[in-house]
Design a protein that fits this description.
about 240 residues, Ribosomal Protein L22, Chain A, 2 domains, four-stranded mixed sheet
Amino acid sequence: MTQALEPNDVHVWMFSTGVSEEEIREFRAILSGEERGRADRFVFHADRDRFVASHALMRMKLADYCNIRPEHLKFGTGEHGKPYLSEPDSSFQFNLSHSGFLAMLVVTRSNPCGIDVEVMRTKIDDAAIAERFFSKRENESLRSLPAAQRRHGFFRRWAVKEAVLKAAGKGLTQPLSSIDTTDIIQGRSSHVSVADGVGRPRIFWAQELKVEDGYTSALAIADTTGTTPRVQMFRW
């Protein structure tokens, strides 16, 4: 079934990567040889299977938009590693994120987009990571939270940063501390500015997404028209 997508639409798909061994065998057949090779480099079978499931399900959903068989899709990568559709030649933009047993896919008609989902792990030193990668304002707002809320606050801010970086196609070439998420998290703004390296900042519309307990997620879209995107979320 061909999936309809209007110019201002943003479709967000959420799906579980906890699938059966039989499904994994079927999903591997959809992937390219390069994707299967990447999957097989994982040390743990659970990580391999989640990679296979998330990338196969992404192919299946993108195939609906492009009206093509999933195994016929071909991908290229941008300068900093962000994937794009190379075949069929299409203006569709997309981004995939997966963590734990949850995967998120965002698709737009032509607007650069990014998405991130994070399982809220407990065995990390979130305070030390925040001191290293967050802006001064972000760390101040994080420290102002009650101690019991700081880990959640850390992952909320991290998800927004990752989504914006992915939408910008910068990867980790853009310092994480240069993207200040304070106004997004506190509900005072829906926009984040990202320096483009030549003195003209790019503006991204960003939003947190409500997902399953134990996870945080965020979405970012390049603001090219000044119009608020129409976001629709689907569980698949």
